[in-house]
C-alpha cells in the first residue's frame, strides 16, 4: 500500500475540508448552512510543458486553501485518509483569511 502520492504534470492533490456538523454547544447545523467546497493542497505536480519545452508551474502551492468545483476530481484513498486529485485549471481559486 502506497503511503505517499506525488501528482504528475499539472495535477493537485487536495484534502477536502469538512465543515463541522454541530456547534461547540451541541446544536446540530443543517447540511447547507456552511457548505463551501474547499480543501487544503497536500501536494502538486511539477506542471506542464509548453511547445518550446519550458515548464509552466502549477498556480497553487502546498498548504494553500483552495475553492473546488462541486463536481469533478478523482477520489483517492491513502491509508485511512481520503483525498481528491484535480487538474490545476479545475481549481476555482485560493481562499485567504
How would you summarize the topology of this molecule?
Blueprint: E1 11-16, E2 38-44, E3 48-49, E4 55-56, E5 65-67, E6 74-78, E7 81-87, E8 93-95
Antiparallel strand pairs: 1-2, 1-7, 2-5, 3-4, 5-8, 6-7
Write up what this structure looks like.
- The structure is a single chain.
- With 97 residues, the protein is an all-beta fold.
- 0% of the residues lie in helices and 36% in strands.
- The chain has no helices and 8 strands.
- It has strands at 11-16, 38-44, 48-49, 55-56, 65-67, 74-78, 81-87, 93-95.
- The protein has a 6-stranded antiparallel beta sheet, with no helix packed on it.
- The radius of gyration is 16 Å and the shape is elongated.
